[in-house]
Task: inverse folding
């Protein structure tokens, strides 16, 4: 019996290592495609990606994997597993069930559909023609409903989708936290819009030399404790972070000549994701647990570093000189406080990815409510433009002039990623809750930021969040880090404190 | 019967596509490791490479592949195959047999040995201590002899090794061409050394700005017809070229601040390899025939572009102004002919990779003769330093001061790559023979070079060499391109004509 268990565990871990190797190889292939792979090789490359993805899927869903999981879940075997191995078995079981429950033929159809759909979406967005995209969206909703049926409905149908990106998250929980947020942020945004004390941002729009921007981005990453022996910074049209393994975490940014903050905050944001991936515990390396535990927790780290730290007054009191000295004569007449306020402008806008730290959450709540309507109330693709526009009017006081700036703006739905959007606001809420704990547990927190001593903060986050990787669930992480479950009041308090000061409310 | 054949062909081609996909993925992983992958991720990356390599090996040597090959080699089936498919079957059979003839256990031992041996070689070379490396080399020779036994001895034992890198090449043939070369080049090198007309090279050693060097390298690549939509130029410590697929061919170079020609000729050399890979016929894409037909033919293209074109007087008459204008004030006083002569200095030297176009061949002949002694005459690792030094004295008139600059200088033997060295000189001979044909078939050949009109030359090479990929054997290529088999007299004539002029002999 013992031998069988040990053999099963050994074989299981070999399989996991293989899966992880495919995952790493695919990660490099995608990174390469997005950072400068020659255009003419893309088709052949896509085929290679297809071959490797298929093989990885086969490894994850093989009959042998199913049998190994059953053996290791057997109560006698399970008792002998280490905590990490038990968690690895549980996570693998979850992926396994999710995959094998979908008939291969159905999944194949869906893959083809989403690939066509993403092209259709791109074209429709360019023309602002929702009707061109609508049939695809209807089909994707239809397939997703079939998947929910196969996977099984949790408390509500939409709960089944949420669980993909934020394990354990529910509609009941999100309704609670988002309603708390919405009720506070809508009036706060209105008060800000009405304030006579609007920051001056004119000086942000100058020609800023790319080399100097890059040098400052690299400097800030280094200050955050980004390990350049275990990662690199490149350029891409859409910035992203990818953790191939904790020793190789890559981020990208995009330099805009006429905007000094875009690449910088993009770098800090991706740098936050990178710190998480670089500091995952050594005991998890080579396993599928060596990654972030959820999209929401991952996003909490990018947003903590970008917004809580990077858009704070102490941060700029420390680093403004390092910025201005790189652009001689360009910012000399701008006091640090003006600069700080300019990086924190709040204004209702139509486009999510350009939104400020406050109204961003309203963009997310709108998408969350629409996704709930689709999967829990049967809303159809044809209904969405109207619903979209109504909600923008209600929450942000503005209405898109075109569907391109409205319901067509995001790529997510065209790829079937329903349930993903809430992660972004969960990230903001987790980040504020973590910052609240940090303020209490590291009494010198803001002094550390103000003196550029960021490594103790990174160290604290490593102990509470990073090192656990996927070996703890999102709720275990947030309780472990802050002592209590998700509480949206911290984000409200943080935003109120910050913006009442900036806008003199 | 027909159905079976068609099914077999379809399945076979699917397998080939899979193998090629793994090959491309591994190519990207290696390229990435050599162009800036973070140091701390290397171990995990190596494991991923191991997993993918193993899978690729399994695909190539599976029982199913053996059966498919037998089915397609059946005379009735074989007749129905297109020329390309028949060639694909033959090439796959060759790899298959070569692989399955070695027992997995033996191969596994050999892989471990060569990996240890490469480390041992590196250390031994650093210390100049041959004795540290000798036991490894003995073992590698021993394993290689076992492989020869398993693969079967061709005309001589060493023939079996040559065939790996230059299919169809024999000891008889190499003895013939190398003796012709050696007998002419040894006295020519002596005459050059004795000439009072040594080129002045002092101006090459200045500080040359890297950006300007890079700009010139990119400009020359563009002039050669390198397609930047199907390739890229990066930097690495050891320059290399890798053809992932004809739409994605990557080369690297290395910029030395104090040498304006090193990166340039490195770029042109790798650019020659790249032109080959970029212009392989579309009918071969996605198959394992979409690569160069042999190391020798590949090397002929890098050396044709680097030496025949890049180190020619017409080339510099056309491009010298483009070079000097990038380094204002640094070369203004140097006449183009002085520059041309400085890039063509001939001098006996100890290190192969630093050798000039002429004496390089003597370095290769020495290695060829030693490898023959090992495998056909039973020479042992212990004998090699003495043999090495004796041959350097005889052919180049100099003797290494240390084994580090002698028998330990090359990595090849530590990795078991016996039979590879001749490819380099084969490349020189093929290149000169092709140049001879070009001079006759494109009467304006040197005018084209002199006017910077290089694309007709690239086009000619595409038709005669590049587009065939591995669908023709090396001898088919050279006969197809020049109308006759390999003839070393062209290299002799080319070198004599060039150096008698430069050294006024």
Result:
């Amino acid at each position: 019996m013992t031998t069988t268990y040990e053999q099963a565990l050994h074989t299981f871990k070999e399989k996991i290592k293989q899966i992880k190797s495919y995952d790493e190889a695919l990660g490099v292939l995608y990174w390469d495609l997005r950072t400068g792979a020659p255009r003419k090789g893309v088709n052949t490359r896509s085929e290679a990606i297809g071959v490797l993805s298929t093989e990885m899927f086969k490894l994850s869903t093989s009959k042998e994997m199913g049998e190994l999981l059953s053996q290791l879940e057997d109560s006698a075997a399970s008792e002998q597993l280490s905590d990490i191995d038990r968690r690895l078995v549980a996570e693998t079981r979850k992926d396994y069930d999710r995959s094998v429950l979908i008939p291969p033929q159905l999944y194949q159809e869906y893959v083809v559909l989403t690939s066509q759909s993403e092209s259709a979406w791109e074209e429709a967005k360019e023309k602002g023609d929702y009707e061109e995209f609508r049939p695809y969206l209807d089909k994707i909703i239809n397939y997703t409903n079939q998947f929910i049926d196969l996977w099984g409905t949790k408390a509500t149908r939409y709960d089944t989708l949420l669980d993909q990106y934020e394990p354990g998250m529910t509609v009941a929980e999100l309704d609670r936290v988002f309603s708390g947020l919405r009720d506070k942020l809508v009036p706060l945004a209105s008060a800000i819009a009405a304030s006579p004390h609007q920051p001056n941002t004119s000086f942000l729009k100058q020609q800023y030399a790319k080399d100097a921007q890059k040098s400052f981005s690299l400097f800030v990453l280094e200050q955050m404790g980004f390990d350049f022996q275990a990662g690199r910074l490149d350029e891409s049209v859409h910035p992203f972070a990818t953790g191939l393994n904790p020793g190789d975490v890559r981020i990208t940014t995009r330099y805009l000549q006429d905007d000094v903050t875009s690449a910088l905050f993009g770098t800090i944001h991706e740098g936050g994701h990178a710190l998480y991936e670089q500091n995952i515990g050594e005991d998890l390396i080579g396993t599928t647990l060596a990654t972030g535990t959820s999209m929401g927790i991952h996003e909490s780290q990018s947003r903590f570093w970008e917004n809580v730290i990077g858009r704070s007054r102490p941060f700029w009191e420390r680093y403004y000189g390092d910025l201005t000295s790189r652009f001689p004569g360009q910012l000399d007449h701008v006091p640090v406080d003006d600069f700080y306020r300019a990086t924190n402008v709040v204004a209702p806008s139509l486009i999510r990815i350009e939104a400020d730290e406050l109204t961003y959450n309203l963009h997310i709540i709108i998408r969350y409510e629409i996704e709930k309507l689709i999967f829990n109330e049967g809303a159809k693709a044809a209904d969405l433009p109207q619903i979209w526009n109504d909600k923008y009017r209600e929450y942000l006081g503005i209405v898109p002039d075109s569907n391109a700036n409205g319901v067509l703006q995001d790529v997510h739905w065209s790829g079937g990623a329903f349930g993903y959007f809430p992660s972004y606001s969960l990230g903001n809420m987790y980040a504020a809750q973590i910052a609240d704990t940090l303020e209490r547990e590291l009494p010198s927190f803001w002094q550390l930021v103000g003196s550029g001593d960021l490594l103790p903060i990174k160290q604290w986050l490593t102990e509470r969040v990073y090192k656990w990787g996927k070996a703890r669930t999102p709720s275990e992480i947030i309780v472990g880090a802050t002592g209590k479950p998700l509480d949206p009041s911290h984000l409200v308090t943080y935003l109120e404190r910050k913006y009442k000061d900036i806008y003199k409310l």
